[in-house]
Structures are given as structure tokens and as C-alpha cells.
Write a structure and sequence with these properties.
The chain is an alpha/beta fold. It has one domain. The protein has eight helices and five strands, in the order H-H-E-H-E-E-E-H-H-E-H-H-H. It has a five-stranded mixed beta sheet. Helix 3 links the parallel strand 1 and strand 2. It starts with a helix and ends in a 9-residue tail after the last helix.
Length: 173
């Protein structure tokens, strides 16, 4: 029997690949594996993009962590659902820092609020970056606030609205 708990569990436990996300991101969003960014200039990576999703692999493991980079007018946003800086995450995943050091430059901000469990075995980071890419127009603070307040779903209409909210982004007249 299918239930909301079963569906949520599936999202959290399903391994997500770069290909899986590429097939689901909104227009103007690219998805890369971290090593694919080596040698690319930031103007090439961000030109005409709403967001760039990156899978940072964990060296020596099939696991990794998805993050989202959002080019803003005066800076780049580094979004990780774990609430860590890029240097902290690259160190934890045992990956070199040069790629992000060149790509982010000196003018960037990052999410400091943990939104996801800290376990790398949970695959919800893919869901987080997908949401962040769809909601790229929100300031980081606004995005985080969406998920840190309490929401009570009181009807089946509330449940279906939450389940389909990303399909309505940028569709308002």
C-alpha cells in the first residue's frame, strides 16, 4: 500500500545520479560532477544559467553530496543542505579545493543553516538542490525560512499543493 510516508522514504533512500537530475531540472540549470568543472572559467559555467548543481563525490566511496551554485548580481551563492561551507564539505569528502576556489572567487555567500540530516547516506540532498534550483529567485534567507518554520497540512488540498508546488514556480501571471 502506498502512503505519504512510503513516498517520502523512497525519496530519502533512492540514490540519485547526475543524469537523474539533468532530466528533472528547470530550464537554465546545468548539472555537473565536480571533476567536470576543472579548468572551466566561471563565465563559461554561469553564462545564462539560473543555477548550477554539482555532485561532489566522496573519494573512495560511491557516495557524494549535491550542492547548488546560484549566480546573483553581486555574488555567487553556494547552497548545501548540510549548512557547511565549501571548504568544510570538500575536506569531509576528501576532494581538492582548487576547482571551487577558482569558480567561486572571493565574492560568495553560503547557507549556514543545516536543513538536512548530516548523514551522507541520506539522498535527500538531491531533493534539496532541485528545490533550490526551482526557487533560485528567492534570497537564501527567504529559502531557508520556508523550511525552518512549522507547517501543518490540514487537508488533502494542502498535501497536493505541497506535492506540486515546484510545478507552479514562475507560472504565476
Amino acid at each position: 500500500m502506498v502512503s505519504l510516508r512510503t513516498l517520502m522514504s523512497t525519496v530519502k533512500q533512492t540514490a540519485v545520479s547526475v543524469r537523474f537530475l539533468k532530466d528533472r531540472v528547470p530550464e537554465g540549470v546545468d548539472v555537473y560532477a565536480y571533476p567536470q568543472l576543472k579548468g572551466k572559467h566561471r563565465s563559461e559555467v554561469f553564462k545564462g544559467k539560473r543555477a548550477v548543481i554539482v555532485l561532489i563525490p566522496k573519494r573512495g566511496s560511491p557516495m557524494g553530496h549535491f550542492i547548488c551554485l546560484i549566480p546573483k548580481n553581486s555574488h555567487i551563492e553556494y547552497f548545501s543542505s548540510l549548512g557547511n561551507s565549501w571548504t568544510t564539505e570538500l575536506a569531509a569528502l576528501k576532494e581538492p579545493t582548487e576547482i571551487f576556489r577558482e569558480l567561486l572567487g572571493k565574492n560568495f555567500i553560503y547557507n549556514k543553516t543545516p536543513l538536512q540530516s548530516g548523514a551522507y547516506s541520506i539522498n535527500s540532498c538531491a531533493a534539496w538542490v532541485l528545490c533550490r534550483a526551482f526557487l533560485h529567485k528567492l534570497k537564501l534567507r527567504e529559502f531557508v525560512t520556508l523550511f525552518t518554520g512549522k507547517v501543518t497540512l490540514q487537508s488533502s488540498d494542502d498535501i497536493v499543493a505541497i506535492m506540486s508546488v515546484l510545478l507552479f514556480v514562475d507560472k504565476r501571471s
